[in-house]
């Protein structure tokens, strides 16, 4: 029986740019990662017990970057602050409001992975 999504994994073409994006722009936090015998990072949200994004630093990016996965989505908060970080960095994004529902900020990470950040409908940009 499936209990939920465990994590996503991103192959970092540029490890520093990838970490800057996910920690500085998106707001994840680097945390515990066991010695797996290869370089990488585990990133956490508010729940510091379960990493939600794993990053590989030692693998080539595949020619078909996205493969069959369209995007990864994160539940987020602080829309105004996140939008301000993206604006200050000149990072391209598409902010949409679902009819009567949540805000969605879509962008691409430095490796080409599509990322969705979902914010409560009560937040204002």
UniProtKB/TrEMBL annotation:
<protein>
    <submittedName>
        <fullName>Catechol 2,3-dioxygenase-like lactoylglutathione lyase family enzyme</fullName>
    </submittedName>
</protein>
<keyword id="KW-0560">Oxidoreductase</keyword>
<dbReference type="GO" id="GO:0016829">
    <property type="term" value="F:lyase activity"/>
</dbReference>
<dbReference type="InterPro" id="IPR004360">
    <property type="entry name" value="Glyas_Fos-R_dOase_dom"/>
</dbReference>
<dbReference type="InterPro" id="IPR037523">
    <property type="entry name" value="VOC_core"/>
</dbReference>
<feature type="domain" description="VOC">
    <location>
        <begin position="4"/>
        <end position="120"/>
    </location>
</feature>
<dbReference type="GO" id="GO:0051213">
    <property type="term" value="F:dioxygenase activity"/>
</dbReference>
<dbReference type="InterPro" id="IPR029068">
    <property type="entry name" value="Glyas_Bleomycin-R_OHBP_Dase"/>
</dbReference>
<dbReference type="Pfam" id="PF00903">
    <property type="entry name" value="Glyoxalase"/>
</dbReference>
<keyword id="KW-0223">Dioxygenase</keyword>
<keyword id="KW-0456">Lyase</keyword>
């Amino acid at each position: 029986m499936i209990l939920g999504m465990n994590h996503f994994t991103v192959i970092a073409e540029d490890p520093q740019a990838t970490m800057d994006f996910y920690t500085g722009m998106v707001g994840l936090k680097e945390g515990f990662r066991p010695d797996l015998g290869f370089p990488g990072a585990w990133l956490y949200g508010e729940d510091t017990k379960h990493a939600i994004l794993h990053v590989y630093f030692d693998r080539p990016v595949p020619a078909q970057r996205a493969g069959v996965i369209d995007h990864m989505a994160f539940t987020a908060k602080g829309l105004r602050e996140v939008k301000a970080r993206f604006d200050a960095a000149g990072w391209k994004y598409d902010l949409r409001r679902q009819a009567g529902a949540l805000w969605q900020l879509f962008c691409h990470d430095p490796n080409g992975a599509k990322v969705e950040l979902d914010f409560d409908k009560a937040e204002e940009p």
